[in-house]
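Thread amino acids onto this structure.
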């Protein structure tokens, strides 16, 4: 049990690092550089990449812990990581409140921290139980819950992988039908519904345990590649209709009724299918030992992927700082390119330093 779990694939860190760069860019409102990311070209975006890759990497790392040290060690690792993400979420919340209060109080409503300034005791207590979340921090509480239950989930996945995947898919389907979610505060549900997004994490874990052996031939088959590419092209056409009136008129009314709304909080099936099609195409286009992954151009992405929690939190703060700069200095296209490039460079330098410091310390699991 767990003996077939593979070693870490550098492509995973590269994908997660690039996803973190895209997240930073997309968190800057009105940023022209967002056209370099996935968000404008289909139904899914970097969130799906992040969730799936986290399922892969967590299963690999904690699977090795389980195999070498047993279930109690696995529980200790996952609970500790849950606590680290929880602590990072609370610290990031406080930093955002202080940053907005000191740098640009007019952004309080936009960053969703005005409620903290008005009701600090209530808001912070709600943050402590993960009900209140400032803008761009929503994914962290979801990962807190995922890591809390990861150890028993992993044991089920290693013993009964297909049954665990089926149960996960059933829960995902029920969420699509009944809209189950956790309540937020002061209004709205959780933006990244754990009851829905758990399916993508489970799918990543299932792929590590048994899926790659059973479905790799199917995933790399020509019909599957063609079908995936066709779906990506169709979703691109639909996505382009959102910004082009001429293309919008070309989308039949009955089709609009079938596909809209494409719900992100509950991981709409169209988003799920788009990500799977994208993953199939990337799997076939990017080999495991692709030399470019070791190049200086992508090494920065790998380093960011290795330190995902820290880079995500710093990226949220940098995106706020970049937005304030654009508001106060210039919001022209050149300024947007400069602040975006500077932010990515700072994230890369920070991640490289973190990797260097971590290499000098005792090795440990760093997963989001």
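Threaded sequence (368 positions):
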């Amino acid at each position: 049990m767990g003996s077939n779990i593979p070693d870490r694939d550098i492509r995973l860190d590269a994908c997660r690092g690039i996803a973190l760069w895209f997240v930073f860019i997309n968190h800057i409102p009105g940023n022209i550089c967002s056209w370099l990311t996935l968000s404008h070209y289909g139904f899914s975006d970097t969130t799906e990449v992040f969730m799936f890759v986290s399922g892969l990497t967590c299963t690999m790392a904690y699977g090795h812990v389980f195999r070498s040290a047993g279930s109690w060690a696995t529980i200790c690792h996952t609970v500790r990581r849950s606590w680290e993400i929880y602590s990072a979420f609370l610290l990031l919340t406080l930093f955002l409140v202080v940053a907005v209060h000191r740098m640009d109080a007019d952004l309080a409503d936009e960053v969703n921290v005005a409620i903290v300034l008005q009701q600090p005791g209530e808001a912070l207590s709600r943050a402590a139980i993960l009900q209140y979340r400032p803008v761009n921090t929503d994914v962290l509480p979801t990962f807190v819950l995922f890591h809390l239950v990861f150890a028993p989930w992993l044991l089920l996945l290693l013993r009964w992988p297909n049954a665990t995947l089926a149960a996960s898919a059933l829960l995902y389907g029920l969420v699509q039908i009944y809209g189950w979610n956790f309540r937020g505060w002061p209004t709205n549900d959780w933006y990244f519904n754990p009851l829905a997004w758990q399916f993508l994490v489970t799918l990543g874990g299932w792929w590590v345990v048994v899926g790659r052996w059973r479905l790799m031939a199917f995933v790399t088959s020509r019909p599957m590649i063609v079908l995936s590419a066709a779906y990506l092209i169709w979703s691109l056409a639909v996505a382009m209709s959102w910004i082009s009136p001429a293309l919008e008129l070309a989308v039949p009314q009955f089709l609009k009724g079938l596909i809209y709304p494409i719900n992100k909080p509950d991981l709409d099936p169209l988003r799920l299918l788009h990500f799977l099609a994208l993953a199939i195409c990337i799997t076939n286009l990017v080999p495991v030992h692709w030399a470019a992954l070791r190049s200086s151009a992508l090494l920065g992405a790998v380093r960011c992927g290795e330190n995902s929690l820290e880079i995500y939190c710093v990226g949220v703060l940098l995106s706020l700082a970049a937005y304030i700069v654009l508001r106060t200095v210039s919001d022209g296209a050149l300024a947007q390119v400069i602040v975006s490039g500077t932010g990515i460079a700072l994230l890369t330098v920070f991640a490289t330093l973190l990797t260097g410091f971590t290499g000098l310390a005792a090795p440990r699991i760093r997963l989001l």
